[in-house]
Specification:
Arp2/3 complex 21 kDa subunit ARPC3; single chain; Niacin transporter; 76% helix; mainly alpha; two-stranded antiparallel ribbon; transmembrane; membrane; transmembrane helix
Amino acid sequence: MKTNVKKMIITALLIAFSIIIPAIFGPFLRVYIPPFSATLASHVPLFVAMFLGPFEALIVGLGSALGFLFAFPDPIIAARAATHMAVGYVGARLVLKNFGYAAVMSITAPIHGLLEALVVYGMTKNLFVAFVVVGVGTVLHHIADSLITAPLIATLSRVLKIDLKSIGEKSKKLVA
């Protein structure tokens, strides 16, 4: 198996950002209506990782869960962040099937909201809080972070002289 060092380095940086964003920016860029919280830009590393491949998206999703676990002592928030692994994996699989950015974000938004709502419902048994506050709130947060990520992906591709999608396509052989 060939090791793609560039992909490993980018993934490691995205994991670091997934941990740093909630820890550093959480107090400044967070909306908190327990058990819902939204830290602006916290999904950005995950959304970029979707263009690297399914494994990379899973690992960055795990980094996101760890970041929220370190940043907030609330187990519900960390459990919600753990759903980022599934959202990232699904998004990366869509990228591999040549879905465009808008389609990937549109398809993963309701999945993201539903998964986080199910986590909250399982822990609180409060239907309204789980599906309205957390589910709808997560979809809105997903959309906001999608809008932040789009120009970032374009900039990273241009400045680093990499095509994130082509890096992700190289991992087709690993997941097929």
